[in-house]
Amino acid sequence: QVDITGLGPWKNYDFNVLAEDGAGNMSIPGPSTNVKTPDTTDPTWPEGATLEVSNLTPHTLTLSWPQAVDDVSITEYRVHQGDVELAILGPEMTSFDVEGLSPWTDVSFRVSATDQAGNMTADELEVTAKTPDEVAPEWGAGALVATKVEPASLTLTWPEVTDDVGVTSIRVMMDGDELAT
């Protein structure tokens, strides 16, 4: 029996043993085996690594992150939006374009890295963003109408207003000053 040290993780090694007698005769062939060493080390992120959002529009954005570090090699990155897996990317990919988002919505993403032994980063990189709303509300057909006009009061009515996200308030202005919301 002999203890072997100095091996590397996730490598194949061929071992065989030979017996020799006092006259120098060697056994042929000796017993042999092939062993693959385990990789028990999780990939890690570089210190200070963050998941970044860029190119933010109402319906799309780009995620980017630094390369993860592993004692053997990174084989994939997994991108999630909430609990939904969006993509499994190769080890050379450190960005991903997200599409199909809704305007004025909070969105959360996370990225993990996996090595060839299936070990995953213990910590995921996470980011939350809010998509912008770039479309102003639109008035339907009609006009602002004053009725019940009295010396000290009147009633204003207006057409329907719509928005891609939703109208949250209507401000009534008089001579540049806000009267009511």
Q: Can you walk me through this structure?
A:
It is rod-shaped, with a radius of gyration of 33 Å. It is mainly beta. It contains no helices and 15 strands. It has strands at residues 12-16, 32-36, 52-54, 61-64, 74-81, 84-89, 95-98, 106-115, 125-130, 138-139, 145-147, 155-157, 161-162, 172-174, 177-180. The mean pLDDT is 95. A 4-stranded antiparallel beta sheet has the order 6-5-8-9, with no helix packed on it. The protein has a 3-stranded antiparallel beta sheet with strand order 3-4-7, with no helix packed on it.
What's the short version?
This protein is 0% helix and 38% strand. It is mainly β.
Which helices and strands occur, and which strands form pairs?
Elements: E1 12-16, E2 32-36, E3 52-54, E4 61-64, E5 74-81, E6 84-89, E7 95-98, E8 106-115, E9 125-130, E10 138-139, E11 145-147, E12 155-157, E13 161-162, E14 172-174, E15 177-180
Antiparallel strand pairs: 1-2, 3-4, 4-7, 5-6, 5-8, 8-9, 10-13, 11-12, 14-15
Characterize the overall form: rod-shaped
Contiguous runs where pLDDT drops below 50 for at least 5 residues: none
Elements, N to C (H/E)? EEEEEEEEEEEEEEE
How many helix segments? 0
Number of beta strands: 15
Percent range for β-strand residues: 35-45%
Strands side by side in the biggest sheet? 6-5-8-9
The helix/strand class is mainly beta
End-to-end CA span: 86 Å
Helix content: under 10%
Give Rg in angstroms: 33 Å
